[in-house]
Specification:
Blueprint lengths: L26 E7 L4 H17 L1 E6 L7 H9 L12 E8 L6 H11 L2 E6 L4 H5 L13 H7 L19 H6 L3 H13 L24 E2 L1 H8 L5
Parallel strand pairs: 1-2, 1-3, 3-4
Antiparallel strand pairs: 4-5
Length: 232
């Protein structure tokens, strides 16, 4: 009797969901992410809602049980050979969180050296969907507890984070619809309020800005600008 193959918990997950690997003539975004559920679901929703009209295709790069920030950057760099200098039709992105990681500064340096664009979130990516509904202020200290509490009070996100339910597909993706511009405005205000007092949404984070101090903040909005979903 044959034995059933066990799934390797460290195996790479499929790099995309849904449409074929490339859509002819479209811009291609390889987006490596830290989590295995929330971020891939969100990126798949962007493909579904905006990909055809805005002529882009996102390939989420993720792994079961997640990846560290440096591994996220490394995963994006697997596609560096597909990027042409001066041509933005193929872009590499890395999305990772503060959480309690210790390799964030090095991950930032790796990304800068390799031409990978970073969308860093503090305390976690979950701040980004919350900004679709409300402003957020006050230090979170690397914990998403308050973010989750507030998000569960938002339409469509009841139960988010309970029993490991952190998906953002289906009803939750629909609840985010039409709120992207508001989320971008709120995220920009967080950049303008960065504790370094040297950062701005217009000019970006200052070179000496310590990402650990960007509390709370998220740069996922920059990806939506590059996709053309919202204006800068």
């Amino acid at each position: 009797m044959s034995r059933r193959r066990r799934t390797d918990p460290h195996a790479e997950r499929p790099i995309h969901r849904g449409p074929g690997r490339r859509w002819r003539g479209n811009r291609v975004f390889y987006v490596a992410v830290e989590g295995e559920s929330t971020e891939p679901d969100y990126l798949a929703a962007l493909n579904h809602e905006f990909g055809s009209d805005h002529q882009f295709l996102i390939h989420p790069l993720y792994k079961r049980n997640g990846m560290s920030p440096r591994r996220v950057v490394s995963r994006a760099l697997d596609h560096r050979d597909e990027v042409d200098v001066g041509d933005d039709r193929v872009q590499l992105w890395a999305l990772f969180d503060r959480d309690q990681h210790h390799d964030i500064p090095q991950a930032m340096r790796d990304a800068r050296a390799g031409g990978v664009r970073v969308a860093f979130s503090h305390p976690s990516f979950d701040l980004w969907p919350l900004l679709h509904f409300t402003d957020v202020s006050g230090r979170q200290g690397g914990s998403s507890r308050v973010v989750h509490q507030k998000l569960r009070q938002c339409h469509g996100f009841e139960g988010f984070g309970s029993r490991d339910d952190k998906s953002v597909g289906g009803r939750r993706a629909e609840a985010l619809g039409g709120k992207h511009t508001d989320a971008v405005k709120r995220a920009k205000r967080l950049v303008d309020d960065c504790p370094t007092e040297a950062c701005s949404a217009t000019d970006g984070h200052a070179d000496h800005c310590d990402p650990i101090r960007r509390d709370p903040s998220t740069d996922v909005w920059r990806l939506l600008v590059e996709l053309g979903v919202v204006e800068s």
